[in-house]
Amino acid sequence: MSRRDTDGEGRTPEAAPASKPLAGRTVLVVEDNAEIAFELASILEEAGAAVVGPVASVQGAYDLMADRAIETALLDVTLRNSETAFPLADALAAQRIPFVFISGQSSALMPPRYRDRAFLNKPYHSDEVVELVLASLKSGL
C-alpha cells in the first residue's frame, strides 16, 4: 500500500472513521479533579470529540455553554465546596441535551429522577467513557 492510500498516519481511509467515533461531536466535561478532568478530555479528544472545558463548577459550565453549543456532557456528581452537578443536569435535561454522570459513589445514591441516566463509575476505562458518550448521543438522554 502506498502512502497515498493512507490517511497520513498509516490507516486506510476506511479505518479512520472507526478510530474517531466521536468525530465532529461536542462534549462538555465538568470535573473538579484536575487530573481526572484532563484524562477525560484526552480520552474524548483521542476519539475525535471537540471538548468544551473541562470546568470544575456548575457556574463554569454555564459560562462555557453561553459561548459554545454542546451535544452531550460528562458530569461529575460531586464537585468542590459541596456543590453537585444536579442543577446543571436539570438545565441540560430541560434543553434535551444528553449527559452522563460520573462518580466514585454508588449510582444507588442518585436522586430518583436521575436513576435511569447513564452513570460511569470511577475508576473507569477509556472505552467505557467513549461508549457511554456515544450511547448518550444516540439515545438523546
Précis, in short:
This protein has 141 residues and is of the alpha/beta class.
Task: Characterise the protein shown here.
With 141 residues, the protein is of the alpha/beta class. Helices cover 35% and strands 18% of the residues. It is built from 5 helices and 5 strands. A 5-stranded parallel sheet has the order 2-1-3-4-5, sandwiched between helices. Strand 3 (72-76), helix 4 and strand 4 (99-103) form a beta-alpha-beta unit. The longest helix has 14 residues, at 126-139. It starts with 15 loop residues before the first helix and ends with a helix. The model is unreliable at 1-16 (pLDDT under 50).
Topology:
Elements: H1 16-19, E1 26-30, H2 34-46, E2 50-55, H3 58-67, E3 72-76, H4 86-94, E4 99-103, E5 118-121, H5 126-139
Parallel strand pairs: 1-2, 1-3, 3-4, 4-5
